[in-house]
Amino acid sequence: MSLHLEHIKQKFGSTPVLNDINLVIRPSEFLAILGPSGCGKTTLLRIIGGFLKPTSGTVRLDGTVYSDSSVMVPIENRDLGMVFQSFALWPHMTVREHVEFPLKSRKKAGWPAEKKEAAAAQAIHDMGLDALADRYPGELSGGQRQRVSLARAIVSKPSILLMDEPLSALDAELKINMRKEIQDIHRRTGAIIIYVTHDQSEALAMADRILVMRYGVIEQLGTPEEIYTHPESEFVATFVSKCNLLHGTWQGSDFHVAGHPFVYPDTGIACPLKEKGLYPVRPEQFHITYDGPGLEATITNRQFHGREIHYAVTCGKEEFQVFARSGEVFFPGESVRLVFTA
């Protein structure tokens, strides 16, 4: 089943939050909605979930209308599960009771007790919670509590899973492990997953497609590879790809770097960037050397990241980011050259 969002608009008072969002989310797709705080991504998720009625527009799952000008299907009657940023666990309920809770809804009243018991047991097992089934949330770690939240969301086998920044409360190492858990859930369930985040690395690592939002509109929609390698706007280039934006002039398919005798080739640069006289260079596309045909620059900062060293360099009035291999060591204050490698 496909989820269709048609001309979705949302205002809070006189303030527009979403402006004419049109989107088709494909069957079994993992869609990440990515953007800075205040861009409208959580508002869009709340509209899909039925927590909020759109000012105008339609939400439908194939032929079933969830929201429009005259229809507002209640949350409990929508075929979806929800994973919250805060876990949303009740302190007086055990792991098993949390997972069983969605099966007590009127929508699942027709399920026989044996089916409900088996579904709860399977969800608990899938999330590795068998040994913790009788514990309370206060007796669990952050990662274990998030697994309970995930098990509760998948137990009724919904067609859609909504996730609102589910990993933001976890530490860095646990986030990496939980990414794999969520990907495994996606493969096992075949559900549509709509995953809201402001973390570019999460979106790039997990999603089939990424929807980049800004100021309540869609900036770009595409695969992680498309978003990273071919940003269609200045915002996407700097927010997702962390591109360095060089200024200059375009002459046909050649970019002439302002103030330097270098010409860079057109590697599929989007028209909006060309119109502004910009050329995006990702941090790994610059190679730092002490000499050679490159932009003159000065190292201003160095951060060791294991396999990579992240450098901040100044080039004229601009500051650029450059990612180098761990053996390529330069020191703040040194004069270097930046050589572009397409």
UniProtKB/TrEMBL annotation:
<dbReference type="InterPro" id="IPR047641">
    <property type="entry name" value="ABC_transpr_MalK/UgpC-like"/>
</dbReference>
<protein>
    <submittedName>
        <fullName>ABC transporter ATP-binding protein</fullName>
    </submittedName>
</protein>
<dbReference type="InterPro" id="IPR003593">
    <property type="entry name" value="AAA+_ATPase"/>
</dbReference>
<dbReference type="Pfam" id="PF08402">
    <property type="entry name" value="TOBE_2"/>
</dbReference>
<dbReference type="GO" id="GO:0005524">
    <property type="term" value="F:ATP binding"/>
</dbReference>
<dbReference type="InterPro" id="IPR008995">
    <property type="entry name" value="Mo/tungstate-bd_C_term_dom"/>
</dbReference>
<keyword id="KW-1003">Cell membrane</keyword>
<dbReference type="InterPro" id="IPR003439">
    <property type="entry name" value="ABC_transporter-like_ATP-bd"/>
</dbReference>
<keyword id="KW-0472">Membrane</keyword>
<dbReference type="InterPro" id="IPR027417">
    <property type="entry name" value="P-loop_NTPase"/>
</dbReference>
<keyword id="KW-0547">Nucleotide-binding</keyword>
<dbReference type="InterPro" id="IPR017871">
    <property type="entry name" value="ABC_transporter-like_CS"/>
</dbReference>
<feature type="domain" description="ABC transporter">
    <location>
        <begin position="3"/>
        <end position="240"/>
    </location>
</feature>
<keyword id="KW-0067">ATP-binding</keyword>
<dbReference type="Pfam" id="PF00005">
    <property type="entry name" value="ABC_tran"/>
</dbReference>
<keyword id="KW-1278">Translocase</keyword>
<dbReference type="InterPro" id="IPR013611">
    <property type="entry name" value="Transp-assoc_OB_typ2"/>
</dbReference>
<keyword id="KW-0813">Transport</keyword>
